[in-house]
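Suppose you are handed only two things: the residues of a chain and a line of SMILES describing coenzyme A. What would the bound structure be? This form records exactly that question and the answer produced for it, so the two can be stored side by side and reused later without any lookup.

QUESTION INPUTS
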Amino acid sequence: MTSTTITVRRARTSDVHRIRSLVAPLADERILVAKEAVAYYEGLQEFRIAEGPDGEVIGCGALHVMWEDLAEVRTLAADRRWRGHGVGHVLLEALLADAVEIGVQRVFCLTFEVDFFRRHGFEVMANQSAVDPEVYSELLRSHDEGVAEFLDLARVKPNTLGNTRMIRTL
Ligand SMILES: CC(C)(COP(=O)(O)OP(=O)(O)OC[C@H]1O[C@@H](n2cnc3c(N)ncnc32)[C@H](O)[C@@H]1OP(=O)(O)O)[C@@H](O)C(=O)NCCC(=O)NCCS
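ANSWER OUTPUT
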């Protein structure tokens, strides 16, 4: 089981059930935030899927655009049986390539996996200065929970407790 047997592709509607089953145990542990099925269908085009050698879905991850130069890596999850075999790595590389293609220069993430993201060029955010006050006030208009987490709003603090805010410039 090495990364050479892992392929990454765009998500399909038929993957939503599996994405939810990857997220569910992590949501129980408060590592990821679970969403309603409709949210995964609506956000499907943000998702990449990792497939094992037999075509089984062994991981997922999404890139959510927040602003002209800013996106978030979210819902990055590797099947527990495949941890440490490069699933997270190939997914994150694909999502960062998507960011470049889309025209985003900075990628944010909120995570407990600080070492993993650091090894992929992310740095711990020292403060809120990733966006200027004008963009901050525009982002406040978003209804997206991840954007609220990025802004560190009080209403999402229970979701973000213990997580580290990290950013990478591409
Ligand atoms: C973060 C996460 C996706 C990483 O997935 P993963 O598939 O285990 O990640 P990788 O295998 O690419 O990397 C893990 C380790 O395996 C090692 N590794 C990578 N490729 C390897 C390979 N081909 N063979 C053996 N080991 C390998 C790496 O050295 C890496 O070490 P590091 O974590 O110290 O950097 C996974 O831990 C996870 O699902 N976490 C829960 C959800 C989460 O916190 N997501 C992040 C916030 S959205």
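WHAT STANDS OUT: The chain has one domain: 3-169. The longest strand covers residues 57-67.
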